[in-house]
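Input record (Table S2, row 200):
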Amino acid sequence: MGAVSHRRSSWTSRLVEWLKTLTFYEIALGMKATLTHLLRYRPVTIQYPHEKRLLPDNYRGMLALLRYDDGTEKCVGCDLCEAACPSRVITVVSAEVPGEPIKRYAKEYYMDMTRCLFCGMCVQACPVDALAMTREYEWSVYDKRHLFLNKEQLLAIGDRNFPIREKRLELQHPNVAFFNVAFPDSPPRDAAPLRTSGTG
Ligand code: SF4
Ligand code: SF4
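Output record (iron/sulfur cluster complex):
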């Protein structure tokens, strides 16, 4: 009796499998899942460039050089960003500020953005906050030489992304003239504020 019942159930399951194959049951099941998602959920595709994603606050986009509120370049040509960069993106050509031998500035500054990882280590390394990461990301070019940026281009990126600039404090002690640091107890400095050559 048991053997007959077992044979009948095996025959039934084979018939079910055969009917499923004949009616494309698995495909219909898959299409049902697809259609359910299509009708139930909103599309997640963004129609770029007509629609753009909201970027997170800490988004790390194109790098920029910054200026103080009086137009002076913040960069003091210390090369720390160049040393910190793991991809050798940055080249700084540092020079003395004419007439002020203890002060330096970046006479030339280059970034080869084809190599950049957008890790932000250069920004962290800069002692005067002269570098910043913007939220610009639309930098596709046909010629990769256009991604080799010079100081003027990097300053222009900074100007358009950071219209509110840090106030440039009066330099109050000759030994801390490199940095924008205020020492309230130090005697006032008579000399005119530093303006590097070629800056606004
Ligand atoms: S973000 Fe990283 S890889 Fe790009 S220049 Fe700065 S340190 Fe180099
Ligand atoms: S950007 Fe900052 S770290 Fe780089 S050379 Fe200028 S001051 Fe130094």
